[in-house]
């Protein structure tokens, strides 16, 4: 893979598509939109819109955002290895830390990956530093 492809939109599109697919597999319904971006050389963030299930939307309407948040975070912890493995295979870097969050009121989820810092091994899929 060329450096342009590794650092370009093809990697970010692959990440977004993978997050949509994984959410469909793990939660039974995928987000309606996903966008991924590097936040510096070692951090990748994917923002997913429209992630809540119909029952979760009803719980939010009833004021039970905390239960939705707790359940989603527990599900994500249970499936973290799937999400990490997928990102490592796309970006070709080792994930050092992974965190998932959700804002039930906004119906938005965040998947955040922190990679081991770059070594001297050459190209690895990270966004170029400014």
Structure description:
By secondary structure, the chain is an alpha+beta fold. It has one domain: Threonyl-tRNA Synthetase, Chain A, domain 2 (2-Layer Sandwich). Helix content is about 45%, strand content about 25%. The protein has five helices and four strands. It has a four-stranded antiparallel β-sheet with strand order 1-2-4-3. A hairpin with a 4-residue loop joins strand 1 and strand 2. Helix 2 runs antiparallel to helix 5. The longest helix has 19 residues. The radius of gyration is 15 Å and the shape is elongated. The N terminus and C terminus are likely disordered.
- Which architecture would the CATH scheme give at its second level? 2-Layer Sandwich
CATH class: Alpha Beta
Strand proportion: 15-25%
Kindly name the structural category.
alpha+beta
Shape: elongated
Question: What keyword list fits this structure?
Answer:
130 residues; alpha+beta; Threonyl-tRNA Synthetase, Chain A, domain 2; four-stranded antiparallel beta sheet; 45% helix; disordered N terminus; disordered C terminus
Describe this structure in a few short sentences.
The chain is α+β, with helices and mostly antiparallel strands. The chain is built from 5 helices and 4 strands.
Write the layout of secondary structure elements.
Blueprint: H1 3-7, H2 9-27, E1 33-38, E2 43-49, H3 54-61, H4 65-78, H5 80-91, E3 95-103, E4 108-115
Helix pairs in contact: 2-5
């Amino acid at each position: 893979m060329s450096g342009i492809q590794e650092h370009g939109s093809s990697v970010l599109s692959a990440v977004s598509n993978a997050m949509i697919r994984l959410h469909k597999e793990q939660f039974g319904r995928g987000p309606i939109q996903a966008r991924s971006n590097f936040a510096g050389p070692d951090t990748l963030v994917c923002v997913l819109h429209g992630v809540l299930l119909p029952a979760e939307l009803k719980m939010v309407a009833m004021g039970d955002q905390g239960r939705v948040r707790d359940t989603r975070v527990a599900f994500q912890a249970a499936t973290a290895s799937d999400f990490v493995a997928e990102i490592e295979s796309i970006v070709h870097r080792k994930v050092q830390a992974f965190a998932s969050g959700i804002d039930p009121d906004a119906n938005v989820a965040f998947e955040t990956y922190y990679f081991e810092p770059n070594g001297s091994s050459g190209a690895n899929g990270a966004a170029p530093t400014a």
